[in-house]
Structure formats: C-alpha cells, structure tokens
Design goal:
Layout: H1 2-13, H2 31-34, E1 48-65, E2 74-89, E3 96-103, E4 111-115, H3 126-134, E5 138-142, H4 168-194, E6 200-206, H5 208-219, E7 226-230, H6 236-253, H7 259-273, E8 301-304, E9 307-310, H8 313-319
Parallel strand pairs: 4-5, 4-6, 6-7
Antiparallel strand pairs: 1-2, 2-3, 3-5, 8-9
Length: 320
C-alpha cells in the first residue's frame, strides 16, 4: 500500500508550474458568503439540465476515512463547503448527484481529487471524500444516478426499469457518461467558489473505481491530469461469470469445502507458486505459470477448527 501514499504525497507536494491571475480570498472573508446555492451555477453540458443546487458550510466534521486502494484509515476533522449538483439528461427521468467537498480557501491545495466507487456503486461518499478533503483536495464524486455508498455496492436493481427491462440509459450513465460530466461540473464549481480553476485535477479509484479510472483515460483523456486506477474490475462479460463460477461448481458437485479446507489449499498453492516471480512475498504474481494440483493434497491431514480431518477427493475436485 505504501506506493499509493508515495504517489499521492507527490501529487500534493508537486510544485505548481502555473499561477492564476485571480487572487484567492482568505477564509475569514470568504466561507460564509461563498458557500451558498446562489453562488453556483450549472455548466453547459449538451443534453443535460439542472434540477437543483444545494450548498452549506460544514464545520468540525469528524470521520474515519481512507483513500481508494489503501487500508490505512485515519480520523479527520475538517471544515468544508458541502455542494451537491443534481441534474438529469433531457427526456430521462433520473436524478444524478455530483458531490463536491470544498475545503476552506486557506486549506485548499489548489487541486481536485475525484474519487470512484466500487462494485455497482459509483461513489463511496464520505468514506473517501473525508480523507481527500482532509489532505487539502477538493473532493468530488458522482452517484451516476443511482444509490451510492458501500451498502449499495452490490445493488443492481437500478439497472432495470419498472417493467423489468434493461435500463440502458442508466447503465450507460454508470458505465461512462456521468464520469466525464463529473469532471466538467467539478472544475466549474471550483472556479466559482475559489475564483480560479484548480492547478491540477486527479482521479483515483479501486476495483469498480479502477474501472472508472480506465474509462476516463480512454473516453475522456483530457478530464484529469493524473489517474490512479487500482485493481480495475474490467472485462465484465467474463469477470462476473468467473465470480459466480466457483459457486456453480460446488452446486453441481454438491460439495462445499469448509473455510479451513479452502485456506489450506490456498496456503499450499502460495507455497508452490509464490517464488515464480523471484520474490517470496506471499502473493502469486504469475498465476499463468502456476500449475498447482489440488489433488496432491488428497488424504493429507489438516486441522479444522481444532478437529483433525483429511483432504477429500471431492474437496480437491471442487477447488480445482
């Protein structure tokens, strides 16, 4: 996880190569007057129209947070202007929310950090935004028009319309369309709030957020100055069936190995294939070269929750 923080620290501390001609107001004369819906407007986006703008000052907000692709959580206490832009695409019944957390002017590092979600949720809201704002970024995210947050990561009900048919438009919103729009809206709001554009804009996400990062790089290459796409969940047409395949195999064989058996098979596979890349770090980094045979463990003893068992042929077939 350290490389991520190294990269992020570099982004925060990188020398600014351009200077704005606008003077940035100080916090004292800025926060209360500028954090109001009347200050903000909706940018020109073809085929999109504004529904609502909300903005309110948030003081001493404390939350444990982290950044995508990391495990190191930290408690942050931040002051920020909480701005939400709600809009829709013409002729479509939807509500897309772009959340923008803008630190006080004195705390802003003159950068945007857009944050992806995971699973089918386009954003994880405060889980990521708190850390980003706490590090001085304007933190932005989009819900792509359906429920967000970790509790919604596996909710796919939004992808069907009232008749049970595929909601192609909303799926495309999630797949790519709202990601580019998030960048346009975020930069526009930043300019209105701070009276200047950001020096740099970055995106980071993990898993589903990593997929979003690659989509942005492919479809909207000018949207961000840097993209960190961790563990991207891509090639969904094969990725999702592959995720369900182990369950299907166990159902067909009517064999469900105990967690301790799965763990033992995993340990054995790592022991055999870990060093294939020349580095014994507890990770199989070259799975294509790993030819582990679960059958070689058949009959061997293992301790399962304090009980002695033997690997069975059926369990080996299931794992294979």
């Amino acid at each position: 996880m350290a490389p991520f923080f190294d990269i992020l620290s570099f982004l925060v501390s990188a020398e600014t190569t351009t200077q704005s001609v606008f003077a940035v107001p100080t916090t004292e004369n800025f926060a209360h007057s500028s954090c109001h819906p009347s200050v903000f407007s909706f940018p020109t986006i073809p085929g999109a129209e504004l529904i609502n703008i909300s903005a309110s000052s948030v003081l001493n907000y404390t939350k444990t947070s982290l950044l995508p692709g990391t495990e190191a959580t930290k408690s942050y206490t931040i002051d920020f202007c909480n701005i939400t832009i709600t809009y829709k695409h013409t002729s479509h019944n939807e509500s897309i929310n772009v959340s923008i957390w803008a630190p006080k002017p004195d705390d802003w590092n003159r950068r945007i950090l857009a944050l992806g979600g995971g699973g089918y949720a386009a954003t994880f809201d405060h889980l990521y935004q708190t850390a980003a704002a706490g590090k001085g970024f304007v933190a932005i995210g989009t819900d792509s028009g359906h429920p967000s947050g970790m509790t919604s990561a596996f909710d796919t009900s939004w992808a069907l319309d009232a008749d049970g048919n595929s909601n192609t438009h909303l799926t495309e919103d999630w797949g790519f369309r709202t990601l580019g729009e998030m960048s346009v809206i975020g930069k526009h709001i930043v300019e209105e709030y701070y009276n200047r554009l950001p020096d740099y804009a970055y995106f980071t996400g993990c898993s589903g957020g990593g997929r979003q990062g690659l989509v942005l790089a492919q479809r909207y290459p000018k949207a961000f100055d840097g993209i960190l796409a961790a563990a991207p969940a891509i090639n969904l047409e094969t990725f999702i069936p592959a995720a369900y395949w182990p369950t299907q195999v166990m159902r067909e064989l009517k064999v469900y190995p105990a967690p301790c058996e799965i763990e033992a098979f995993t340990v054995a596979a790592i022991q055999q294939c870990d060093a294939l890349d020349g580095d014994e770090d507890g990770t199989i980094s070259m799975p294509e070269s790993c030819h582990f045979e679960a059958s070689r463990l058949i009959g061997k003893e293992l301790s399962c929750d304090g009980e002695q068992r033997r690997f069975t042929k059926e369990a080996a077939m299931s794992v294979r």
